[in-house]
Write a structure and sequence with these properties.
Elements: E1 8-10, E2 17-19, H1 36-50
Antiparallel strand pairs: 1-2
Length: 51
């Protein structure tokens, strides 16, 4: 798969586009964030809102 053929998504936290990675091959449908940092930030924001 060439770089141009890879599917892209928009990060739910920062809004930046990101591309498919081989590491996400099994769970691409569940991937919502571009990085671990964005995932952690989203979790913190969600926790803060509940409390």
């Amino acid at each position: 798969m060439t770089r141009r053929e890879r599917p892209t998504r928009t990060c739910a936290t920062c809004g930046r586009p990101f591309q498919w990675r081989k590491r996400w091959a099994r769970c691409w449908e569940e991937v919502r964030h571009c990085s671990e940092r964005c995932r952690r930030t989203a979790r913190r924001a969600r926790r803060a809102g509940k409390g």
